[in-house]
Amino acid sequence: MTAPAPDRFDTLPRFATALKAIESLKPTEPLYLVFPDKFALAAQTFLKGFDGDVLYAAKSNPHPVALKNLWAAGIRHFDTASLGEIEAVKSVLPDAICHFMAPVRLAGQAKAAFEKYGVTDFVVDSDAELDKLLAETGKSKTVRVFVRLVASLGGALLEMSSKYGCRPEEAAKLLKRVRISGCQPCLTFHVGSQCLSPFSYAQAIEIAQQTVRLSGVEIMALDIGGGFPAAYSGEPPPPYHWFFDMIKTALDNFGAPGLKVMCEPGRALCAPGISLVAQVVLRRGDRLYMNDGIYGSFDEQRFASFDEDYPPTAIALDAKGKAKAMTGAKRPFRVFGPTCDSADKLPRPLMLPDSIGNGDYILFDAMGAYTVSSRSAFNGYYPDGWAVVG
After folding, report:
1. Which pLDDT band, with edges at 50, 70 and 90, does 234 fall under?
2. CATH for 70
3. Taking each helix axis from N to C terminus, what angle separates 168-181 and 198-215, rounded to the nearest 10 degrees?
4. In a domain, 4, yes or no
5. Does the reported pTM lie above 0.85?
6. Cα(21)–Cα(369) distance, rounded to whole angstroms?
7. What residues does 185 pair with on adjacent strands?
8. Which residues of 29-64 are buried (b: 16+ CB within 10 A; e: fewer)?
């Protein structure tokens, strides 16, 4: 088996705790803290609890640090949504098994993925995309075509069916076309991101079962998508075994013994493994100006549904340079990022100690998902400091 490619992220400084990292580095730019043990725990939860292939949704964090930590924890399959993501994964993990799970692809991308990288799993939700896929892969018998279903079932903070997916009647017709083509007919769906309802998966599996009945086609695999929640602040999500048990029961009722099953966790695998240290550049009354913001690690904060994510801990260095968590009465602060854009502010106040001031730090946990992957270099700011904890 080929070893992952070495790069600068293989020799990151390592510290026993987040406080020790802050003490030693005294970072003036945003600092990502990597927790290998948390990556390992998240991966093993799915590898042991889910009875099927576990595909890491690379879009949630395609950074080499995340990819290598999940590979080390046993993840071998990767849900990739573009040729660029496939190339990014393969450049770091040559032996990774990539699945091209985007329903709409740029012309030629399926052909390149199939011929250059040996990708055989693809998704469609329309006749036009199926035509394009069959033409680019030559209707190979090795190709598995996953027809994507609409799964607007509620229970998720971010729905994923308004852009992609088709109803059972249309999906049934596509399944018949796939079977006639000689490729392997399969089904998939996505219940939505940060889904807090295990029952949504059972409902979606029932929709898949209905589709199979309408089509009269025996499917070769069922991909139940992603959406598994990460544990942020506030009310914790249901334990993962509730999801796995609900899914198993629904699959037992599906009536297809031995059916190959896949899932695509992204947030659930990478969110807990990375924390972020930001520094207060300026306090002005009840306003704080940080060295990171919406154009950096906080793009997902634009979604108002994430009311209680990213629980902050204020940290100060004492006179001896020791890092300590700040205590005392808290108050709400409006928090702004470093760019000159007035839109660069967190949409909701943060509750932080009233004593926080210039040069103090704010530690945000569970920052591994949709942070590194969506940061930009707008206005010349680009968070890219790294250290390992543990």
Report:
1. low
2. 3.20.20.10
3. 60
4. no
5. yes
6. 21
7. 145
8. bbbbbbbbebbbebbebbeebbebbbbbbbbbbbbb
